[in-house]
Amino acid sequence: MNSMQPNDWFEIRQFDDGVIGIGEPGHDEDVKSYLVIGRDLALLFDSGMGVGNIKHVVERMTDKPVLLVNSHSHWDHIGDCWRFDRVWVHEAEADDLRAGVGNERMRRALAPERLTRPLPDGIDLQTFTIPGVEPERTLHGGERIDLGEREFVVVNTPGHSPGGITLVDEANGVALVADAVYAGALYAHLDHSDPIVYRETLRQLAEMAPSLKTLYPSHNAYPLPASFLIKVNDGNESVWAGRAPDSTEYGIDRFQFDGFAVLLPQGARG
Questions:
Q1: Cα four-point dihedral sign 183, 110, 118, 67
Q2: How far apart are CA 42 and CA 39, in angstroms?
């Protein structure tokens, strides 16, 4: 494999509704961050895995001041937070953001078998870490983020993690849904996940679907239609109604649907 310059790590997609996707398709997480540029302020939703310099990407697209809002504090979403002056996160995720991610975890996360592209030059897996960051502000849900002629509201969508958030642009029917919903295996089985809370989040998002047009998830195919929220909630409700898992491995029940799956700890439904 040939080496790549840092910004070659990213793939950029610009959409008619003003959302810019910043993807990292060279890793099996296929993570997405999003940039929305208002009249006065640019919003960056998540900062990716930290192996490419996402700040350089943003600076190529706007000279507006940048507010970085984190959907949650998992490693693949906070990698470049340390590069930004203004970082917001939900209060329940703030300590994890402050802690950063150590080298042992990152060596596993960036193992060669998880990559389909070479890592950018300068990334040494023996020393690579994600530095901790002190957030400028912690969020509680309900806040409005005014970019100037564009506004997002913070919606609490926990369950996958304790303080997961979605950002909703009500005027344009856009929802940046992060890890709450995407086309793939939905994780409600992690140590800090709460399947019961996650069920309520999916119900809440399904109720919002009629007022939305477009979803921008943090992984895999994007964008998605708002109707996907209803499809996922219906599937998850069938799980809670007693559907048998399609497979069970390592204490995790997998429920497979068309276009997504739900992962729960074995016995989570009582």
A1: positive
A2: 8
Query: For the sheet containing 137-139, what is the strand order?
Result: 11-14, 19-24, 31-37, 42-45, 66-69, 87-90, 137-139
Nearest of 73, 75, 56 to residue 114 by alpha carbon: 75
Residue 211: CA count within 13 A, CB half-sphere: 10
Paired strand residues for 106: none
6-265 CATH, one of 3.40.50.80, 3.10.450.50, 3.30.460.40, 3.60.15.10:
3.60.15.10
Structure tokens at 151: 């506004």
Q: Report the distance separating Cα 172 and Cα 168, nearest Å.
A: 9
CA 38/CA 58 separation, integer angstroms: 13
Cα separation, 174 vs 154, in Å, equals 12
For the chain, domain boundaries = 6-265
- Residue 4: pLDDT band with limits 50, 70, 90: very low
- DSSP E strands in 77-223: the ranges are 87-90, 137-139, 144-146, 151-156, 165-169, 174-178, 185-187, 214-217
Output DSSP code: residue 135. Answer: -
pLDDT (tens digit, 9 = 90+) per residue, 53-84? 999 999 999 999 999 999 999 999 999 999 99
